[in-house]
Structure to design on (238 residues):
């Protein structure tokens, strides 16, 4: 995603395979790009995108829409070319917890089940984000919102505990432009430690899952946004 391709606020869109991700340990994090190392034979035939990525120890993933799973051309191409799957919108906050404390995994499970039935691993997207929050969450602030964030992370990750390869725990928390600072959002206004708290909550909820920070426009090392994210990672590691 280029600097001129930023969608307007609130736009529903799938995660982009060219975004950069940050993998987290307990709270310590190390940076990698969104294609991750997987064990495979370096002699695999590069007849598909997945096979081509595997030749250099990477995976190649795609976003899947539950509403498209009845389209045989769509599923044939997805099954043939990719070896990692994430849901377009079905695992986001408004989809999985439309009412506070009432979780709905119907469509998320459709994507998950299709993926595992076809031998794919699954990346969960996303647990904490300023966008695509249900109305009840948008109306909260302060400690109430912080508690709701933690409850949401625990509820979703409990449902998929031990099943999801990696989670985008926090999504798009840094501002565009030259500040290198955090985006102003209702989550940010709960306190500057909210990202760390989200990662600690996620780590306790599923010790086996890889934990990721996801954002866009952090491709260029000289950009202020890139440096802002890097400094957060360095702080977490220290």
């Amino acid at each position: 995603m280029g600097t001129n391709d930023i969608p307007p606020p609130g736009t529903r869109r799938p995660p982009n395979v060219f975004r950069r991700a940050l993998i987290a340990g307990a709270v310590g994090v190390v940076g990698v790009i969104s294609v991750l190392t997987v064990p495979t034979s370096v002699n695999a035939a590069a007849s598909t995108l997945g096979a081509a990525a595997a030749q250099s120890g990477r995976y190649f993933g795609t976003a899947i829409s539950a509403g498209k799973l009845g389209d045989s051309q769509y599923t044939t191409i997805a099954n043939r070319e990719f070896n990692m799957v994430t849901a377009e919108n079905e695992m986001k906050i408004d989809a999985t917890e439309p009412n506070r404390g009432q979780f709905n995994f119907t469509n998320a499970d459709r994507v998950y089940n299709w993926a595992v039935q076809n031998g794919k691993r699954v990346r969960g997207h996303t647990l904490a984000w300023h966008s695509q929050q249900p109305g009840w969450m948008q109306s909260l602030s302060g400690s109430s919102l912080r508690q709701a964030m933690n409850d949401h992370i625990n509820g979703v990750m409990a449902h998929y505990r031990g099943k999801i390869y990696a989670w985008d725990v926090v999504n798009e928390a840094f501002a565009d432009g030259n500040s290198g600072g955090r985006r102003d959002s209702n989550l940010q206004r709960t306190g500057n430690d909210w990202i760390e708290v989200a990662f600690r909550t996620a780590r306790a909820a599923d010790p086996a899952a890889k934990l990721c920070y996801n954002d866009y426009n952090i491709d260029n090392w000289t950009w202020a946004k890139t440096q802002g994210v890097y400094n957060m990672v360095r702080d977490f590691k220290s």
Notes: The beta strands are 20-24, 29-33, 61-64, 84-87, 121-129, 166-171, 210-215.
